[in-house]
Amino acid sequence: MGKVDKKYDKKYDKEYSKSKDKGHTLSFAVFLCGVCFALLIPPDFFKNLQSLSNKNRVASSPTLNEQSYSQSYSHAVPNIVHLYLHRNGEADPCSSLITIPINPTNKFIKSTKTPHDFGSALTSLLLQGAQGELLQNGSDVKIACGTVVGDKGGFDNFCDMGKLKTPIQHDHSLLIRVPSYNTLPCSYFTREGVRIDSFESLARAKKEGEDNVNVYAVPAGRLFMFAPKFVGEEFDLSHVSHPENKRIYLETLSVSPRVFDIHGFFVESEADDIVERALAQQSESHKLKRSSTGANGYSVSSTRTSENAFDTHSKSAKDLKERCFDVLGIRPYRESLADGLQVLRYNITTAYIPHLDWIDPSPQLDHDFITSGTGSNRFATILLYMTDFEKVEGGETVFVKGASLDPEAPSKEKALADLRADERLSGLFKRDSWEEKMVSQCKSALSVSPKRAKSVLFYSQHPDGRKDEASLHGGCPVLVEKQKWAANLWVWNAPRLGYPEAPVKLDKGNSKNKQRRKKNSSKQADPRAANQKDEQKHVTFKNRGGDPTFKDAVLHYEDTFWGNLGYSQQHSVNSFEGHVWNIKVKDKTVKTWIVGKDKVQVYEV
Ligand SMILES: O=C(O)CCC(=O)C(=O)O
Ligand SMILES: [Fe+2]
């Protein structure tokens, strides 16, 4: 292993192990007080929960998925829960029925206060069950929830994928290792993506009329993913607020790739606003122009012939991005996981060839894109449509590896023959061009025709982070004189390229990389460099108000939008020495701050 690897490893070790067992304090005895609870749970369980203490936890910004959704389950709390455990993204349970007694006055339950306490406690409890100690009507509980790939060990290995496969989320240091096992805990969700963050919300997750709760365990560092079993299956998202108070729900369009119609995701006024704002964008980086591809700047592509614009911080864009996170079960909203809203316009014959939204790693960048490891990349896409298209008009989004929903869909060969036989259409494309081939895929595979205010969700990764090759999709050629308007929201699985906390790739001996990294480290300016000074600085940017130059100030990390910094606004961030923060007004940089040595720093205008 090279020097850089070792350094990286050390930094990663440091990050990864920040979550280590926090040591126990105080009131372990109070755990033992709940007699009723203790009768049903083996005493070992309590013994093993000694380390659930807040002591030594590193203070941090609000935590991913921290917010409770328990308000959406308003009925009385039952005192016993029967649950089936699922691995994230899997429709079938991996356990037999598990019985957990819930007594809200029980001191142990009361002392499990944060989502992280709860994650650790429930993981511990389930691991006890896996050892046959948790009794269900006198018989052993079966928990066969080990890792999916490589099948290394049991549920503990599932929740803690190991330091080489656990992306560092912003709440990583708050995770509480599972007592006795010293492994990272899972987080737990309902089938609809509602975080279960306490024993009470576990009890409340039981729906009226149902006997059991289905609980989905998500490994540390990973995000919740819906687990459809069949096409047409619905997921009620009534916990997500709708701008017109309508119901939002998912309808499964395909199980692999995982594609859903999100009914009610957005409304017509938002669709109009997106188009208007895209047309009004003036700045070079954001205005409507021929699309480019890849992560390395702007270069026009011959297989992506649409135009696109970016809307990063209008009210509609922000509302939609936040709603998108709610739908995905990621709370609270994190700007570092969201790509700006990208608006797309297609004219007759223009298209975007089938591709993955998952970005291929680039040798030019230090960013770690490999999501089966610790990297970050695009995780989910929500596509928004602003115009109506009939099937014959083209412009669909096609998932070339998905099965068509139309039982009468032609084969690819028949679709191609039909296209060539149609005089009007055959004149639109060169014979054997990618566009011609694509039209035949659009007619034969799973495709979604644009409809005003319709939206689609799909995932580019498997639940454990591996790239999902089945998510190959494209924007079909428009076949009529009409414009297709669409937009996409991309959500990353961990801080995205360009953000201070974004993961840096392991150097596999590439000397060019090593040289660049050395250069970067001496400058101390590249946030993606592995060997920058490790110590985080707590930095606050403030606008006191009064200086008209900064009335409409916008804070950027280098060129990446961070937040508005108008009069009286402020942002607190964790950054590193040498990081460059810019204030822009009307897209011009008017002030640059470079983070200094002090642990706590305040920059004001
Ligand atoms: O336009 C479409 O239907 C798909 C667009 C797309 O896949 C993309 O922009 O990444
Ligand atoms: Fe795409």
UniProtKB/TrEMBL annotation:
Family matches, as PROSITE patterns: FE2OG_OXY (PS51471)
Keywords linked to the UniProt accession: Dioxygenase, Iron, Membrane, Metal-binding, Oxidoreductase, Transmembrane, Transmembrane helix
Region described as Disordered: spans on this chain: 502-545
Domain Fe2OG dioxygenase: 337-493
Keyword Membrane belongs to the record: yes
Requisite cofactors: L-ascorbate
Name of the protein: Fe2OG dioxygenase domain-containing protein
